Structure formats: structure tokens, C-alpha cells
């Protein structure tokens, strides 16, 4: 049971940490590495374009996208484990 608690805590902390990291990278990319006149948009996280960012900003946005994917995977895994525990019991 202790291992299950550690797993659940790890998945939840991973999802929160990756979400915060992604947000910070996006803020840095838009405030320090965007090209003049570039408009902020959600689509830029999924498909950043070189005309919006310099090389550093482009890498930051690509890393932010990867962190969002890890966030979703960890959060969905957390939900699946919680459902399995409720269904089959965690005793």
C-alpha cells in the first residue's frame, strides 16, 4: 500500500511540476525570445514557427510542448491508477 501511495504522489507531482515548467518556458520564450511584432497564441505551443521566435525561443517552445505531453501522460496515469485502486481495492 505504501508503494501505491508513493506511485500516486509521484505521478501527481510529476504532472504539476511539468505543467509549471512548461508555463515558465512559454513565458520566457514570449517575453525574451519572440521576434518583434509576433502575436502570442496557443497554437505556437504546438507548432512554433521560426518567424515568431529566435533559436532559443524556438527550443524553449518545443521543450514546453514536450513537458505538456508528459503532464498529460502523468495525469492520465494517475487517474487510471486511482480507478484501479477504487475498483479492485488497494488492500
What attributes characterize this protein structure?
single chain; 91 residues; mainly alpha; 3 helices; 76% helix; 0% strand
Structure description:
By secondary structure, the chain is an all-alpha fold. Helix 1 runs antiparallel to helix 3. The longest helix is centred in the C-terminal third of the chain and has 34 residues.
* Rough outline: elongated
Structural class: mainly alpha
- What is the radius of gyration? 17 Å
Could you tell me the strand content as a percent range? Answer: under 5%
Order of helices and strands: HHH
Mean pLDDT: 93
Note the total helix count: 3
> In percent, how helical is the residue content?
over 70%
Number of strands: 0
Distance between the termini: 7 Å
The main sheet comes to: none
Q: Stretches where pLDDT falls below 50 for ≥5 residues?
A: none
Summarize the structure.
The protein has 91 residues and is mainly α. The chain has helices at residues 2-32, 43-46, 55-88.
Question: What is the topology?
Answer:
Layout: H1 2-32, H2 43-46, H3 55-88
Amino acid at each position: 500500500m505504501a508503494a501505491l501511495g508513493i506511485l500516486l504522489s509521484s505521478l501527481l507531482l510529476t504532472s504539476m511540476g511539468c505543467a509549471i515548467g512548461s508555463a515558465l518556458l512559454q513565458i520566457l520564450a514570449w517575453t525574451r525570445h519572440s521576434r518583434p511584432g509576433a502575436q502570442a497564441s496557443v497554437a505556437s505551443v504546438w507548432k512554433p514557427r521560426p518567424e515568431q521566435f529566435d533559436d532559443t525561443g524556438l527550443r524553449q517552445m518545443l521543450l514546453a510542448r514536450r513537458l505538456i505531453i508528459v503532464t498529460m501522460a502523468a495525469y492520465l496515469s494517475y487517474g487510471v491508477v486511482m480507478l484501479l485502486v477504487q475498483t479492485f481495492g488497494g488492500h
